[in-house]
Write a structure and sequence with these properties.
heterodimer; A: 113 residues; mainly beta; seven-stranded mixed beta sheet; four-stranded antiparallel beta sheet; B: 110 residues; six-stranded mixed beta sheet; five-stranded antiparallel beta sheet; 11 strands; globular
């Protein structure tokens, strides 16, 4: 199993540009989520999904959209990038049942200038 | 919501030394994980330990759920242990959202 994969690893955007961060998992996990990590603030939940077709907001959803058309993929869209979205983004997945271990992808480092 | 506090915030060790990292949480949990974030930014799962004790090589962890804390033990530290150690929990009443501590930053000197 490849586990959780993310692309790209690095990205530089100009303010106002849009882009999609890709996340895929091959473990047949129902639960997937996106976090951002900023210095001194730990990881914060952006959006999550408990299964195909179902998404919900986390702590910091503004400026981000998600969709979940398949079990495997959970892309994160930045509609109009802002410098405040400069961060490292992690995708995670786990089985649906509460309490299962979460597995993280390698991260995407995004810089918005 | 549930609070997760880690201590110490920073730790410097000489190679070969042992250390204990602590994670306190303010409410009952049904998931607790320890992660190591290496200097390249990768998040590595160390333990999934909502209760009890586990060991993996030089690392071990104990969670006492009734007293709301978890400990991560690192023995015979190596320079490759450097990085940030995070504790993250899922509140028993809040489905699947991982709540993170701010981490312990560990530097192991040769």
């Amino acid at each position: 199993n490849a586990g959780v994969t993310q692309t790209p690893k690095f990205q530089v955007l100009k303010t106002g540009q849009s882009m999609t961060l890709q996340c895929a998992q091959d473990m047949n996990h129902e639960y997937m989520s996106w976090y951002r990590q900023d210095p001194g603030m730990g990881l914060r939940l952006i959006h999550y999904s408990v299964g195909a077709g179902i998404t919900d907001q986390g702590e910091v959803p503004n400026g981000y959209n998600v969709s979940r058309s398949t079990t495997e993929d959970f892309p994160l869209r930045l509609l109009s990038a802002a410098p405040s979205q400069t961060s490292v983004y992690f995708c995670a997945s786990s089985r649906a049942r509460v309490g299962y271990e979460q597995y993280f992808g390698p991260g995407t480092r995004l810089t918005v200038t | 919501g549930i609070q997760v506090e880690q201590s110490p915030p920073d730790l410097i060790l000489q190679e070969g030394a042992n250390s204990t990292l602590r994670c306190n949480f303010s409410d009952s949990v049904n998931n607790l994980q320890w992660f190591h974030q290496n200097p390249w930014g990768q998040l590595i799962n160390l333990f999934y330990i909502p209760s009890g004790t586990k060991q993996n090589g030089r690392l071990s962890a104990t969670t006492v759920a009734t007293e709301r804390y978890s400990l991560l033990y690192i023995s015979s530290s190596q320079t490759t242990d450097s990085g940030v150690y995070f504790c993250a929990v899922i509140n028993a009443g809040n489905n699947r959202k991982l709540i993170w501590g701010l981490g312990t930053s560990l530097a192991v000197n040769p």
